[in-house]
Design a protein that fits this description.
Blueprint lengths: L1 H15 L22 E5 L3 E2 L11 H14 L5 E7 L2 E6 L1 H9 L4 E7 L3 H13 L6 H14 L4 H8 L3 H9 L5 H8 L5 H7 L5 H14 L3 H8 L22 H14 L3 E5 L5 E5 L4 H10 L2
Parallel strand pairs: 2-4, 3-5
Antiparallel strand pairs: 1-5, 3-4, 6-7
Length: 299
């Protein structure tokens, strides 16, 4: 974990040590065309992306759909930027709109311009992105950790900043102590947060990995996982999911196909595969609009 913490802070520390990127130190020397705190149209090529964006994946299909919408209706909600210097800005929030506007070949984009130093920019960007529903659990955990370390926050203060219960923040931060293989399983939606909370209580790394593999091989429920973690013997052959017909972890090729399918639909999916090669594909949706989008993808 010590190495991970160092990696999280390295980029920001470099920027914080460079006074040219912190306009609060030299604002009197900057010629301001657009009043700070106002909404104006900025040239897209004068805006650079936020290097501390916690969201690492942008669905290509969804971006293209947003770009089509922007071509028709324009950018309805302005992005937020901070002024770095003369005709130079850095994105704080709204990277999807910014990327989609680039795809739509826009020259200008409406933006709310703020005066913020590096730590304030980092906090605003992280808090705005943490509130999104499409970040995976590890991205959220890394965002919490980065915000905590760089802004020197206790877990209690951190929970206040992000508007979450302290226990919720603590559960996410504990995920970072899991073996990287298990973390990858969380990011790929191979196990749930319930499974992860059980695994994080196992201090022995090999025992943690063994139970993780058992979850995948036998399609264990959270309850079964908790019982195994407590040393309770359970009859896996009588599991409701009929794990004896499972072939274990999905083949890498199937995992890749599933990932591409999820990106196409912009929805979570679950694949259940049997030894015979037969299986089920379950597509999840949150509301009627998402269901309509999924159906349109097959038309």
């Amino acid at each position: 974990m010590a190495k991970q913490k160092k990696a999280l802070g390295r980029g920001l520390s470099a920027i914080l040590s460079n006074p040219s990127t912190d306009i609060t130190q030299s604002q009197s020397n900057i010629e301001i065309k657009t009043p700070l705190g106002a909404i104006g149209e900025l040239l897209i090529n004068t805006i650079e992306v936020n290097p501390f964006q916690p969201r690492t994946h942008f669905n290509e299909t969804a971006l293209n759909e947003l770009a089509d919408s922007i071509k028709e209706l324009g950018v309805i909600q302005p992005i937020t930027v901070r002024k770095l210097g003369y005709d130079k800005y850095q994105l704080i929030s709204g990277e999807r709109r910014f990327r989609a506007s680039q795809l739509a070949s826009l020259k200008k984009i409406p933006a709310y311009i703020r005066l913020a130093n590096d730590k304030e920019m980092l906090e605003m960007a992280l808090v705005e992105n943490i509130q999104r529903e499409d970040l995976d659990a590890i991205e959220i955990a890394l965002s919490y950790k980065l915000l905590q370390v760089e802004c020197n926050l206790t877990q209690e203060k951190l929970s206040e900043r992000v508007g979450k219960k302290r226990s919720t923040v603590s559960n996410y931060l504990r995920l970072l102590s899991l073996n990287p293989i298990v973390q990858a399983g969380i990011r790929d939606h191979m196990i749930s947060m319930g499974h992860a909370r059980t695994l994080v209580n196992i201090s022995d790394e090999q025992a943690q990995l063994d139970l993780y593999k058992a979850i995948l091989t036998n399609n264990l429920s959270v309850r079964q996982t908790e019982e195994l973690a407590q040393g309770v013997k359970i009859n896996l052959t009588n599991s409701k999911s009929n794990p004896t017909t499972k072939i274990g972890p999905l083949p890498f090729s199937v995992q890749q196909l599933t990932k591409k399918f999820e990106e196409k639909l912009n929805s979570k999916t679950e694949v259940k595969l049997q030894k015979s090669g037969k299986g089920k594909l379950i597509i999840s949706f949150k509301n009627e609009e998402e269901l309509e989008h999924i159906i349109q993808c097959f038309q």
